[in-house]
Amino acid sequence: MNKKVIENAVCTVCGCCCDHLEVVVQGSRIVNVRNACAMSSSKLLGYMNERIMQPMMRGKRGLSGCTYERAVNATAKILTKSKSPLLYGWSLTSCEAVEVGVELAEEVGGFIDNTTSTCHGPTILGVHEIGESSCTLGEVRHRADLVVYWGSNPVHAHPLHISRYAVTCKGRFRPSRAERKLVVLDVRRTDTAKMADVFIQVRPNEDYELMCALTAAVRGDEIEVEEVAGVPTERIEELAELMINCEFGVLFFGLGLTMSSGKNRNIEAALLLVRELNSKTKFVIMPMRGHFNVNGANNVMTWLTGYPYAVDFTQGYPRYNPGETSAVDLLARNECDSALIVASDPVSNFPRQAAANLASIPLVTIDPHITPTTLCSDVVLPSAHVGVEVGGTVYRMDGVVLETRPLVKPPRGIKSDVEILRSILRRVKSLRRAGS
Amino acid sequence: MQSVRVTLLTGRSLSQGRSKEQGKLSDFHLQSVACCEINVEDLSKIGVSYGENVCLSTEHGRVVVRAVSPTQPIPPSVVFMPYGLWAAQVVGCDTDGSGMPAYKGISAVLQPARGEDVLNVEELVRLSFRKADRENRRLK
């Protein structure tokens, strides 16, 4: 059978959305991938592993196969009967699917939250307070001479970020690695730290203190202690000098800041540091977004509801109060009476008690694969992979919009997230009309 | 029983990132995620060797995982677990009003877990989320 090479395919794993993959397709299968990182290769060569091949509903003997029509009908009944359903996930699917999801949340009067609430939610809260100075990854590639990773380990989490966008790439004005300085701040000497020109080891949960001390040093204030967060004052002052003296600096930060003590306050401190640096030089800041379209979920929800995540439609209009209307808080307080999970596995990732509460309510999951969440679900609707089997729009971590294309056909009969969500929405509307 | 107080960090590892794409019920995922990276100093304090099982307890729960050598150096009194079902068992729901639970910097106690097995995905789901009870519930 002839092999076909698809060039410039967009990777749908992490927020880098690398769009230079070469995917070799033979028949209906992907047989090789070039230019991809280890995670991307794993996905593209293993996308058929542990697939769900038909819809399922829970009966006396556990989950058993059914038709899409029955599963959609059961889902619509669950959502229509609920007073406060939670619609969660949305970061591993397309913007088009998120758009339908928002309409569904409004129709059923529920909560809609994306995985931002357990990754860069604190970043968004920080940006609400301070604002941000940002740019595209292309500008970083061509102009940055100082790259700082704080609480982020791209060698493991965003494997091509360093070589494609930030440090070892060939930029127009920074043609080689020698033109750039790499600084890493982390609680561990990570594999990213091993590549750094300067590595600063921070004590766990003390990033806020160090960030404030560094801002003071940039401002020219004297730090009247010998060390902060385990870092000698002298080193903090040296780092401040290095940051002030660069031509174009960028601070990339990861979940080391958003998940540690301080959370959104850590991000506010980082944004204030960058604001201070901009009085001396050019400096930008960017979160290292995890899922390939978590930024798209934020953007779509913002342009449809005014809010980027944790949106509450239970009053009939959108409200937003992370900490109250975000998924983990809602589940911890047992406030939801059903849930629809789209392209996410919260049972694996949410704190145990929140996951247990999620598993105890009527639960519907739309996902291509068997996961701990599908194992706990009452209705399971298998879907096609966005960016592999169906196309769709995604937002890269810097807000650049990319169009993904189908590389192969989905398994026979398997529908896309958009098709499934539209069917559920239609059925919900007809049930509500019949009810009223 | 010997125990040592540690600070738990959870996070992404390349192996976890690859294995979740390969399948969450796979042995590769179990090996990549149901583990805890521990400094040799802490490990010797509780009399355990790499490859043996340890129990990690927090105020939110406990989990048994395999002790492994750090892939990236880790200071004493700090341990690392990859994101996933096993790490989630010891994370609390409090978000400090931010929506974000504390997945990093969690106070924990590390102990040997001799005689206790590391549960696989299906066993852990059944144990933690009472799936067996749900089997009897029929959708109306």
Please outline the helices and strands.
The complex is a heterodimer of chains A (436) and B (140).
Chain A: E1 3-9, E2 21-26, E3 29-34, H1 38-46, E4 56-59, E5 62-65, H2 68-81, E6 85-89, H3 95-108, E7 111-114, H4 121-130, H5 137-143, E8 146-150, H6 154-157, H7 161-166, E9 181-186, E10 198-201, H8 207-219, E11 227-228, E12 231-232, H9 233-244, E13 248-253, H10 255-258, H11 264-277, E14 282-287, H12 294-305, E15 311-312, E16 319-320, H13 327-332, E17 338-342, H14 346-349, H15 352-360, E18 363-366, H16 372-375, E19 379-381, E20 392-395, E21 401-404, H17 417-435
Parallel strand pairs in A: 6-7, 6-17, 8-9, 8-13, 9-10, 13-14, 17-18, 18-19
Antiparallel strand pairs in A: 1-2, 2-3, 4-5, 4-19, 7-15, 11-12, 15-16, 20-21
Chain B: E1 4-11, H1 14-22, H2 27-33, E2 35-37, H3 40-45, E3 53-58, E4 61-68, E5 78-82, H4 85-88, E6 104-112, H5 121-129, H6 131-135
Parallel strand pairs in B: 1-5, 2-4
Antiparallel strand pairs in B: 1-6, 3-4, 3-6
Helix pairs in contact in B: 1-2
